[in-house]
């Protein structure tokens, strides 16, 4: 007897569990039971789980009967003529959806040629094991699964052509690659997903070699000539928005050039780009601190006494100014109104980003790296036929990561570029590597993809043969221009008096315990005095009771809140965070006593 659970609730017992399970599956294939129902028999604990709940991940598979696929040539022809569709195949029981549990009771073949009488299902195509972006990785079955997944993830961060109506859109944080291309080595997913409508990379010549140590640790070396010809150029767009809000009492914001008598007026230089209506003009070159949209708001706090107060009608400044570290050109100005009918101003800024040292690039195989050096075109190595690589990739990234697909793409794209055709690199169903090598040999190159290169600086022939080929490279959104950050002095937090956090707030760079250890190890321990006094403060301390005393600046007198005037009070240098914890302890009725000693 096997227990039966329907949607995890016990519902009864059956004598012949295998027959019971088979009956449910047969009825589902006939269409009398919903295709959403899955059944799983666990022999070890002798239970049957019937599940139809929401949120299960199910995937379609072709049903196999007696070692033969139920999907026949007849079905294929009917589909081509549009006589039947996907839903008809599901209704006919040719295709069924399995969840993870029911899949435990099945044996699934990858290809029709692999079928044996033991198989119960057949993959529609093995590529459906992976997701959409991972299916865009060519020759994925030649790499470690983790790297293929990373390659898929990297493609989500790549810059490309995200929408054809981008000039009319006001999207946050947008990057647009100037000359995106279709890859030479493609998969079937490129055609299915209409990748040619939104490509996000460029085909370049890649040489696998070390270059003076500048491509150590996954870094890449880029040819300056390629950048000058447009490789990796992109534009960054960001909107600035301001609206006239209404407040209680009929008060409103006003978009205008603020008057000098308002509270928080910046300076005339900050408002220099604003036109009569208080809005910037297109194509203005702006930097941090410049006001883009001028705005004033009513005072924050109103009380009943304010109407008698002369200063009550002083408005406050609330303009939109560029944040710390930002710059760009005003690209587009839009004046409209929001849903409530109030004035709404949107300004889009653009900033051209040319590849620089520290920008991140990747192939489609999880081989990401930052630019370590940009070399003048004349100093790059070149081949006998005059081909100069656009990018030099380090060979050390291959052995430990086992991304053989990266190497096959180099040869495949080289064949495609020379033969003038696309190469099919679909995972599990790609053009074989041997055929690519043969074709490359016919085209007049070494079949292993290696070439003799010459040193660009000396003209001497390099002693090793270098693996050179074409490859689809992507520029990622992680750029130095949007991450660079430094600070000497700046804003501090109100509570701890320590520097604010984060690049946008012009925050400090935190030096932790481990960083402190490296300073000490380098013999620069005196520098710690400077690094750790961001919240240095002087406090008067009473010598008799050890509590923090009070210093009156106007009278130039100190006194202790416990002992009074006639005691010795000394000024001590402490971190403000320490003073804060003493105050916190006092609030818990704990008496923190400071015992002072001489410094020397």
**CATH architectural group of the largest domain:** Beta Barrel
Q: How many helices?
A: 13
**The number of domains:** 4
CATH class of the largest domain: Mainly Beta
Considering the chains and any ligands shown, give keywords for the structure.
600 residues; alpha+beta; Dna-directed Rna Polymerase Ii 140kd Polypeptide, Chain: B, Domain 6; OB fold (Dihydrolipoamide Acetyltransferase, E2P); 6-stranded mixed β-barrel; 5-stranded mixed beta sheet; 13 helices; 34 strands; 18% helix; extended
Structural commentary:
With 600 residues, this protein is an alpha+beta fold. The protein is built from 13 helices and 34 strands. The strands form ten sheets. Strands 12-26-13-24-23-30 form a six-stranded mixed barrel. Strands 5, 6, 7, 8 and 9 form a five-stranded mixed beta sheet that branches. Strands 10-14-22-21-16 form a five-stranded antiparallel beta sheet, with no helix packed on it. The model has no long low-confidence stretch (mean pLDDT 92).
Annotate the secondary structure layout:
Layout: E1 2-6, E2 9-14, H1 17-30, E3 38-42, E4 47-51, E5 58-65, E6 68-69, H2 73-80, H3 86-91, E7 95-99, H4 100-103, E8 108-109, E9 121-122, H5 132-135, H6 145-156, E10 174-177, E11 185-186, H7 188-192, E12 202-208, E13 220-223, H8 224-228, E14 234-243, E15 254-255, E16 285-287, E17 291-293, E18 295-297, E19 316-317, E20 320-321, E21 327-337, E22 343-353, E23 360-362, E24 368-375, E25 382-383, E26 391-393, H9 404-419, E27 423-424, H10 433-442, E28 450-451, E29 453-454, E30 466-475, H11 513-521, H12 527-531, E31 536-542, E32 550-552, E33 557-559, E34 569-575, H13 576-587
Parallel strand pairs: 1-4, 8-9, 11-27, 12-26, 13-24
Antiparallel strand pairs: 1-2, 3-4, 5-6, 5-7, 5-9, 10-14, 12-30, 13-26, 14-22, 15-18, 16-21, 17-20, 18-19, 21-22, 23-24, 23-30, 25-29, 28-30, 31-34, 32-33
């Amino acid at each position: 007897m096997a227990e039966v659970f329907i949607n995890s609730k016990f519902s009864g017992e059956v004598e012949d569990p295998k027959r019971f399970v088979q009956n449910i599956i047969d009825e589902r294939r006939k269409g009398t039971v919903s295709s959403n129902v899955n059944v799983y028999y666990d022999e070890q604990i002798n239970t049957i789980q019937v599940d139809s709940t929401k949120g299960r991940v199910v995937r379609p598979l072709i049903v196999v009967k007696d070692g033969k696929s139920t999907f026949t040539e007849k079905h294929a022809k009917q589909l081509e003529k549009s006589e039947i569709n996907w839903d008809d195949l599901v209704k006919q029981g040719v295709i069924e959806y399995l969840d993870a549990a029911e899949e435990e009771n099945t044996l699934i073949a990858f290809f029709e040629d692999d079928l044996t009488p033991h198989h119960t299902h057949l993959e529609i195509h093995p590529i459906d094991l992976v997701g959409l972006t991972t299916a865009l990785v060519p020759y994925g079955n030649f790499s470690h699964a983790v790297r293929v997944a990373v390659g898929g993830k990297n493609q989500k961060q790549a810059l490309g052509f995200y929408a054809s109506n981008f000039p009319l859109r006001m999207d946050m944080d947008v990057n647009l690659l100037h000359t995106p291309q279709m890859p030479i080595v493609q998969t079937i997913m490129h055609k299915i997903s209409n990748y040619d409508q939104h490509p996000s990379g460029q085909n370049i010549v890649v040489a696998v070699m070390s270059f003076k140590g500048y491509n150590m640790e996954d870094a890449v070396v880029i040819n300056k000539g390629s950048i000058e010809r447009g490789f990796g150029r992109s534009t960054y767009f960001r909107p600035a928005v301001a609206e006239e809000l209404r407040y209680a009492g009929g008060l409103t914001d006003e978009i205008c050039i603020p008057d000098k008598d308002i509270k928080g007026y910046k300076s005339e230089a900050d408002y220099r780009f604003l036109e009569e209506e208080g809005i910037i003009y297109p194509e203005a070159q702006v930097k941090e601190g410049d006001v883009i949209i001028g705005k004033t708001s009513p005072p924050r706090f109103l009380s009943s006494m304010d109407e008698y107060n002369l200063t009550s009608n002083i408005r406050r400044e609330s303009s939109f100014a560029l944040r710390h570290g930002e710059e760009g050109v005003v690209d587009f100005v839009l004046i409209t109104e929001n849903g409530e009918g109030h004035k709404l101003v949107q300004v889009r800024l653009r900033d051209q980003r040319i590849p620089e040292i520290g920008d991140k690039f990747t192939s489609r195989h999880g081989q990401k790296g930052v630019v370590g050096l940009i070399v003048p075109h004349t100093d790059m190595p070149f081949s006998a036929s005059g081909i100069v690589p656009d990018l030099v990739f380090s060979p050390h990234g291959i052995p430990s990561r086992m991304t053989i697909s990266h190497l096959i793409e180099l040869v495949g794209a080289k064949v495609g570029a020379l033969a003038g055709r696309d190469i099919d690199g679909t995972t599990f169903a790609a053009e074989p590597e041997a055929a690519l090598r043969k074709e490359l040999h016919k085209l007049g190159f070494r079949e292993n993809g290696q070439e003799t290169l010459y040193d660009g600086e000396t003209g001497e022939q390099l002693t090793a043969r270098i693996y050179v080929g074409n490859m689809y490279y992507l520029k990622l959104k992680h750029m130095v221009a949007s991450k660079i950050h430094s600070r000497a002095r700046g804003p501090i937090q109100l509570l701890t008096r320590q520097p604010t956090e984060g690049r946008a707030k012009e925050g400090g760079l935190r030096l932790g315990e481990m960083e402190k250890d490296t300073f000490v190890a380098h013999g620069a321990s005196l520098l710690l005095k400077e690094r750790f006094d961001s919240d240095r403060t002087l406090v008067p301390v009473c010598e008799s009771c050890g509590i923090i005393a009070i210093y009156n600046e106007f009278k130039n007198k100190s006194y202790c809140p416990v002992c009074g005037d006639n005691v010795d009070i000394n000024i001590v240098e402490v971190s403000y965070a320490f003073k804060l914890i003493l105050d916190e302890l006092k609030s818990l009725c704990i008496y923190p006593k400071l015992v002072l000693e001489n410094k020397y």
